[in-house]
Amino acid sequence: MSYFDAASAAPLHPVARQALSASLDEGWADPARLHREGRRARLLLDAAREAAAEAVGCRPDELVFTPSGTHAVHAGVAGALAGRRRAGRHLIVSAVEHSSVLHAAETHEADGGSVTRVAVDRSGAVDPSAYAAALREDTALACLQSANHEVGTEQPVAAVAENCRAAGVPLLVDAAQSLGWGRVAGDWSLLAASAHKWGGPPGVGLLVVRKGVRFAPQGPSDDRESGRAPGFENLPAIVAAVASLRAVRAEAAEEAARLRELTDRIRARVPAVVPDVEVVGDPVRRLPGIVTFSCLYVDGETLLHELDRAGFSVSSGSSCTSSTLIPSHVLKAMGVLSEGNVRVSLPPGTPAEDVERFLRVLPDAVAAVRERLGAPAAARTAPESGTDLVVDATGRRCPIPVIELAKVIGDVPVGGTVRVLSDDEAARLDIPAWCEMRGQEYVGEEPADRGTAYVVRRVS
Amino acid sequence: MSYFDAASAAPLHPVARQALSASLDEGWADPARLHREGRRARLLLDAAREAAAEAVGCRPDELVFTPSGTHAVHAGVAGALAGRRRAGRHLIVSAVEHSSVLHAAETHEADGGSVTRVAVDRSGAVDPSAYAAALREDTALACLQSANHEVGTEQPVAAVAENCRAAGVPLLVDAAQSLGWGRVAGDWSLLAASAHKWGGPPGVGLLVVRKGVRFAPQGPSDDRESGRAPGFENLPAIVAAVASLRAVRAEAAEEAARLRELTDRIRARVPAVVPDVEVVGDPVRRLPGIVTFSCLYVDGETLLHELDRAGFSVSSGSSCTSSTLIPSHVLKAMGVLSEGNVRVSLPPGTPAEDVERFLRVLPDAVAAVRERLGAPAAARTAPESGTDLVVDATGRRCPIPVIELAKVIGDVPVGGTVRVLSDDEAARLDIPAWCEMRGQEYVGEEPADRGTAYVVRRVS
């Protein structure tokens, strides 16, 4: 079995496991107590904080441990917004942030604040000038991830931080995906991260608030973690998390080069071995271990199960794999195909043979799903003439609307149109993406009796 | 070394340790994912939820796991208040709740809500009729602990729950100290608990919201834990926590009887072997493992260090052991002496010999502290006549003001008064408590040039 979903959660690093075991013996007591068990716990906590601060590149008193990366983001956004309340209530985020950031932004909006979501290009990156343009007099905080969790694209954090600094606006960086690989460059103000992404145990996040940043923790608080993260410290997990961070950092340069070569193989060879595939995300400025592609005419959930049976655990941003039936907001913001989406995220230590085997298995897995769904085999020659067509795919889920479109496009004369009726939200993303991939013209959408009509003009 | 601070944190139960180790292998993946590691994690999470629900006595879908007991309380109070916003914004708590409940109440007040803090008697218990009297038309929620964390007194939860139910007000029970011993009786609506109190690892709390209770989670949320506890589930710790709960429950009846006998020994023998001691908390309706007493003329921090040197780890609610210099709000609400306070909380499995050794060591430890502080040895006979006295103890910390009072009381004629000037907040609690213990009359306090004058009349 090959586990290729490190971006969701990585198995516990052996060093973390040792540290966890040792600190369950030494660090279970309350570090706020005066007795020897408490003092011992306090020493362990202080040492963990110093080591974590060294890895992040901050002062120990700027760093607190939280119960998760999500808690770090929620506490960081709320505290920074409240601390800058006098400046205003405007928040800037990118459109491709982790859901924890977007949920915090939604809560802020529901509470009367305003939010600007900065768009990304087709590679998933923001433009620093777009962040600069979003800055307003009343901007209290800007948030930007160091790298994207679904497609691996690195963001221009240093340039955005410089723009924010010039405007006197703090920048919160969600470094969840990158902190195991190295420090976040640039003059950021707040940083959040999550230990189980770098081989630490679950239950530990980091929140860093630079000295001088106005910060007012929200909600009930206590004396622990500088009043920024209430509740009994999860000390054994904290110690293990920091041990793991140091261990993965020690191997980071070498392992990054190795994984980058492996993901380069996938990026290059998937389009060669699987027809009708779009590899997404920046090919160069990206995390070493993540590669994401989407397969036309494929249902993401079925493909995941097919790959699972073949021994590969991957993830997907397709709508058919989520409980909400909404395709990944990241793929949507990038304007790329979401159907048949596969994210491969390699854990450190992944053997090259596993990647080779994945590349051997993938074509058959995709073909099997396509065959089952009755996907079209190849494009036909355009007929000399014919009328405009309507395809009714209402009541049918992704990727059926696109499959139906592909089936009839051959019957449409060049210059003619086909109207695809669909009530699946994914069609709004996947039909334009299909047009882009196929060189056909996406005309636009119109309301229909049931769902929406997506109009496509045959160009070639 | 004997660890007698189980009420702060208990060492990891051996069963929890095994479960943690196994679930680090099996349960590190994201339970929201479709691949086999994710499905395996989901199965473990579902099984843990069922077992926890069985132990609590609720439905599995009423129970979510939180990162700590504190998070469970904060989320429970905020969600229940918001869910009942239409009823009003009045919150009832007891004066002796855990700080997490009191902090949540303070946040509610700062946000414009109103709070009634129900007083307790000298044993630390609330009167159900006082809770009933506090209920108002606009009461949204009432909170009551199952048992007190500092003195072990059990609260009349079932009777209070009945009153609340009759008024249509939900009752949230903080069961942190008692859940390891058994289910909470009565028709409560919400329940919070903390795994590291029952020998589980830190990083796990429980929040139970009964079906039919109006509940609106506050702050940013996500799909996890029914939208009531955002962030990646700490699954290995959850599995370990539930394994520990089942294990301690299996031994609970027998171990409760054994620890109760041991704490009864302490309750009975401490006043016999140490002069000027007040044992606090209900002698009968109490947790099996907790006993708390206060020693006149003793500085809590010094006594803790003295006992630590003698091999005993205990806790204290004295102001001199906290960073805030405010004596325990529990002792204050009970109106008992706070100086020289010692909480002994025995972990399951404590050998009787350890308790016997503690009883042998304690008298010398207390005597050593008293000698160092120059505490009075014995009361003198009252002089025939004399003027009213003033003792200036300003600038001096607990227990010096009481020691100075005790030194001069012999110089005051019966019927005469002594005014103790003090600027230490603990004096407000400890001087009346001393009068109660010594059979002298506490007249009251008056503002003074520096600090406050506490007036005591010699009666005998």
UniProtKB/TrEMBL annotation, chains A, B:
| CDD domains with a match to the protein in the record | SirA_YedF_YeeD
Q: Does the keyword DNA damage apply?
A: no
A Pfam family this protein belongs to?
A: TusA
Per its record, what are the GO molecular function terms?
Answer: cysteine desulfurase activity; iron-sulfur cluster binding; metal ion binding; transaminase activity
The record ties this protein, via InterPro entries, to: Aminotrans_V_dom, Cysteine_dSase, PyrdxlP-dep_Trfase, PyrdxlP-dep_Trfase_major, PyrdxlP-dep_Trfase_small, TusA-like, TusA-like_sf
Q: Where is the UPF0033 domain?
A: 391-415
Identify the cofactor(s). Answer: pyridoxal 5'-phosphate
Its domain of life reads Bacteria
Homology family: Belongs to the class-V pyridoxal-phosphate-dependent aminotransferase family. NifS/IscS subfamily.
UniProt-recorded name of the protein: Aminotransferase class V-fold PLP-dependent enzyme
Q: Which organism is it from?
A: Streptomyces griseicoloratus
The beginning of the lineage is: Bacteria, Bacillati, Actinomycetota, Actinomycetes, Kitasatosporales
